Amino acid sequence: MCGNKVTAGIPYICPVREATPGFDHFYARGKTVIAQGLLEGEIEPSPELTEALYSCTLCGNCMTQCGSVNQETGEALVNTTDIVEALRADFLQNHPQWVDPAYRSLLSSTRQYNNPWGLPRTAKEKWATKMQLKDAQKEPAPVLLFTGCTMASSQELSPRARKAAEIMNAAQVDFAILGKDEPCCGSVQKRIGDVELAREMMEENITVFNSLGCEMIITLCAGCANMLKNDYKQAKTKLKPKVLHIVEFLPKLIAEGKLQFKNKHPLKVAYHDPCHLGRHMGIYNEPRAILDGLPGVNVIERQATKENTICCGAGGGMRIYESGSLAEKIGQTAVASAIEVGAQALVTACPFCEMNLEAAAGNLNNPIPVYDIIDLVYAGLGLLK
Q1: Which residues contact 7 (CB under 8 A, 6 or more apart)?
Q2: CATH entry 3.40.50 includes domain 120-254
Q3: 0.90 exceeded by the pTM?
Q4: pLDDT band for position 2 (50/70/90)?
């Protein structure tokens, strides 16, 4: 966690440390020292410490690269993401006046609208207009398509949800959606420190999901997938449906011949592993298998890839920290690394990654487009109108 492990495949450990002056409080070692100092009473809470605690993407690369691991399980002996989340929870509860008002506004929006972005609940169903999709609460189906707040509510990102539904229809998957009644998964709230709100949301959501009678929940957001699959294990009630991200679901449909690619689109792409899917869930091969099966698509690996992938910069609430400027600075490095190896486009499987990488790319002299993997699958199937 010293931040100094640099090799050919690991250009740096902490994206925040690399994009800032690099003082200890910007990366894992400093944050663990702060936690210890607070616990032992040697450090007093302050607004400056609060700012330091929110300057973290929670990407987990520090744990991946640290040599201090449990020899039996291979897991890091110090879970820095848990430490940072716990510190944020403590400061949010005991010193809320020091927490950026933008974070507090996000939490208020969640309580009012059941989504963090302050949009009316009806905004989450607009993407499905005129698609005549099943309502999961009225027509039970074995598969629930869970779009997530960010993709469903964003005018720029919501076409991905529509494309995902069309892909499912093309494969004749029996699925349903919740539309305006789709709840927020609670990931963003937990990451920025409101553990109690996230816990309440988990319990309420599990009750809803279990009542639907579905066997499987397919998510389009990496953060939702990680939250539903991993964090929900901490809930009192067990989540019955199996949780898969769409990149885990599509290979099965392809293998069964339910999705057959017709169109060839010659394109050299680099795949950006979202931290939630990669380091936190171990999903690396599935998205690459999908891309390898697309006619004309050539996957080029960057210098740092798979478990060594440098975070896009948007995780852990960093799109709010410093109004997103630091997140975009980190994202520029990620996009530049794709350009360096000759990629013509960057592909990911997370709306937060797509949003931040696209914003970052726009600030480069020679930007490349950023796609969700759904875009390329949709085009390969010949579904483009």
Answers
A1: none
A2: yes
A3: yes
A4: low
